């Protein structure tokens, strides 16, 4: 099972459980996560959602084999269902991040309410390095959260950065020891679960309200570029290079 769902203390935990592939996310995993968010919204016993990764990584992002063999194109594709659900979740969403948080492993954090990260966490947004462009409305949210130049450095160069930088960029709440981050994040989610659900719902809605339409529109705009770019030769070269364990060569493309 590549996704494990657990319910305890009013918290629904979604654990990415594909440690041999650093929790890279396949279409089937996106679908399970999208369904878990749907169930969480319907079930009054669920008062908060926690996302974490098993095996010392949060997520190596989208599965590159899926990108190569079955790139998502329709708006109903599991990845888009998941992104719509997490970005419009009415209940609080907490993340516990350790190790790699690549691509969507970082951009999904911009939709979480509380993000706790281990000192081992390493973030990256290598969309340009892969011949792609940002997704999950990160082209809108990262400049808003971190300021334009810092967002531009991360989104244009795509280089990995550590947890202290993520903290100073404003999308991580607190840094913890790697062996404490999951328990701490669960405890925070449990605290939320004990608070009045209606007050949480209204407070979150008030904070997000002005951005909701912008986020949905930007995700659609990004997808309009991202989907064709997945099939373009630059991206094909980048994916092949990853699996052949070599540096990509973009010199033949204009
Ligand atoms: N899709 C598919 N497989 C992936 C993957 C991904 N996104 N990320 C890692 N894997 C696989 C590797 O191919 C490897 O498989 P193998 O053992 O069968 O060879 C295994 O997971 C372990 O990865 P490895 O690269 O050996 O681990 P590492 O600790 O040296 O590096 C990462 C970890 C996450 C930095 C590195 O794997 C990486 O850069 N992955 C690609 C991330 C990416 O570009 N994601 C898409 C973003 S849009």
UniProtKB/TrEMBL annotation:
One Pfam family matching this protein: ECH_1
Subcellular location: Peroxisome
CDD domains documented for this protein: crotonase-like
Alphabetical keyword list: Isomerase, Lyase, Peroxisome
Major localisation: other
EC code: 4.2.1.17
Domain of life according to the entry: Bacteria
Molecular-function annotations in GO: delta(3)-delta(2)-enoyl-CoA isomerase activity; enoyl-CoA hydratase activity
Gene3D superfamilies, sorted: 2-enoyl-CoA Hydratase, Chain A, domain 1 (3.90.226.10), Lyase 2-enoyl-coa Hydratase, Chain A, domain 2 (1.10.12.10)
Homology family: Belongs to the enoyl-CoA hydratase/isomerase family.
PANTHER family documented for this protein: ENOYL-COA DELTA ISOMERASE 2 (PTHR43684:SF1), PTHR43684
Designated name of the protein: Enoyl-CoA hydratase
């Amino acid at each position: 099972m590549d996704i494990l769902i657990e319910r305890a203390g009013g918290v629904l935990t979604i654990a990415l459980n594909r440690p041999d592939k650093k929790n890279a996310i396949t279409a089937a995993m996106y679908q399970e996560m999208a369904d878990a968010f749907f169930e969480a919204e319907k079930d009054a016993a669920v008062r908060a959602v926690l996302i974490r990764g098993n095996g010392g990584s949060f997520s190596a992002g989208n599965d590159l084999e899926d990108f190569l063999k079955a790139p998502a194109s329709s708006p109903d594709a599991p990845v888009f269902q998941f992104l719509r659900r997490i970005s419009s979740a009415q209940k609080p969403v907490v993340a516990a991040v350790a190790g790699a948080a690549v691509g969507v492993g970082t951009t999904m954090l911009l939709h979480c309410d509380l993000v706790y990260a281990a000192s081992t966490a390493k973030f990256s947004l290598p969309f340009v390095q892969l011949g792609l462009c940002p997704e999950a409305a990160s082209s809108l949210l990262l400049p808003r959260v971190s300021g334009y130049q810092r967002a531009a450095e991360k989104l244009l160069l795509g280089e990995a950065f550590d947890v202290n930088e993520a903290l100073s960029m404003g999308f991580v709440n607190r840094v913890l020891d790697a062996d404490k981050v999951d328990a701490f994040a669960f405890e925070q989610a449990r605290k939320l679960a004990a608070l009045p659900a209606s007050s949480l719902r209204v407070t979150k809605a008030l904070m997000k309200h002005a951005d909701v339409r912008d986020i949905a529109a930007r995700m659609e705009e990004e997808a309009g570029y991202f989907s064709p770019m997945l099939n373009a030769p630059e991206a094909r070269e980048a994916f092949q290079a990853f699996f052949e364990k070599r540096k990509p060569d973009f010199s033949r493309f204009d």
